[in-house]
Amino acid sequence: MRDPIQITEVKGRAQGGYSSAPFRCRGEDGLDYYVKLGNTHPSGLITEWIGGHLAKAMGLPIADFNLVYVDPDLTETLPADFKELRSGIGFGSLCAPIGHRELVFSDISLLDAELLAEVLIFDYWIANEDRKLGTAHGNPNALWLPRRDPNLLLIDHDNAFDSSFGLETFFNDHLARDEKSAWMNRERRENWQLMALPAIESLSSLWATIPEEWLTNEFDEPLPVPSMKIIENFLIRPIVAEEDFWQPFVEL
Ligand SMILES: Nc1ncnc2c1ncn2[C@@H]1O[C@H](COP(=O)(O)OP(=O)(O)OP(=O)(O)O)[C@@H](O)[C@H]1O
Ligand SMILES: [Mg+2]
Question: Is 59 within the bounds of a domain?
Fold first, then answer.
């Protein structure tokens, strides 16, 4: 795994009612990252990191990401309204290519239905309600990229592994809700499980990459964050409770 990328400049903040309002920062590699650190809870950093790696493992188009390091000396120089960033190791989502914008409802019909079905099952698996889009509003946590294949880029998994995940809300609001029927196909379900298995098996090695400071405080006491077991319990549903897991897709 790459070392954390040192942040050299804090340039601004995502605008528009976002819960963590990530900081747009320049990395030592010359690239811009949307950074979550003091502006989100450590549990959000953990779910963001694990969710992001699982999205990659499942072949989904997700904004590239890395651990980033914000030096206390840099934080010291920031204006008061940027101090919330704090210092230490954060999550950096690589800024999408020029021309990107937030996904809107009319984009959905232009996206590949197969890909949308994969996004739907992925969010169901990781219990992520946070990819909603209707005709008038939503919170898609997905970007539209012009002149790219696919035109879709996923972001934001800090609300995944949600213990209050609601099936009804999920299937009513998810941006790919219309692709639910794709999963009535048993062969498709079996192929998906074959892909998910190695991702599930890699959880403990992935867990080992979580920075210690997201798990324990400066007195070495555990922070109130989800354990690996909790996350594993979400992920193993298609293995240990296969019938229950697929039930919402079998009879529509
Ligand atoms: N990699 C990226 N490239 C471009 N824009 C990004 C990227 N990551 C985040 N953003 C912008 O910042 C906004 C907020 O980011 P994100 O959704 O990760 O934060 P959040 O606070 O967890 O959001 P929410 O309110 O959905 O929980 C995004 O909607 C998008 O406009
Ligand atoms: Mg978001």
Answer: yes
How many domains does the chain fold into?
Answer: 1
Q: Which atom of ligand 1 is nearest to the CA of 158?
A: 22
Q: Please give the full DSSP string across 14-44, using - where no structure is assigned.
A: --SS-SS-PEEEEETTS-EEEEESTTS-HHH
Tell me how far the alpha carbon of residue 147 lies from the centroid of ligand 2, in angstroms: 23
Instruction: Name the residue among 40, 52, 39 with its Cα closest to residue 84.
Output: 39
pLDDT at 200: 98
State the pTM of this model: 0.97
Give domain status of residue 9, yes or no: yes
Flag whether 212 is in a domain: no
Sign of CA dihedral 37, 42, 47, 49: positive
Mutate which of 36, 143, 144 for ligand 1? The one with the most ligand atoms within 8 Å of its CB, which is 143
In a domain, 198, yes or no: no
At residue 68, the pLDDT reads 98
Distance 103 CA to ligand 2 centre (A): 12
Residue 57's domain comprises 5-94
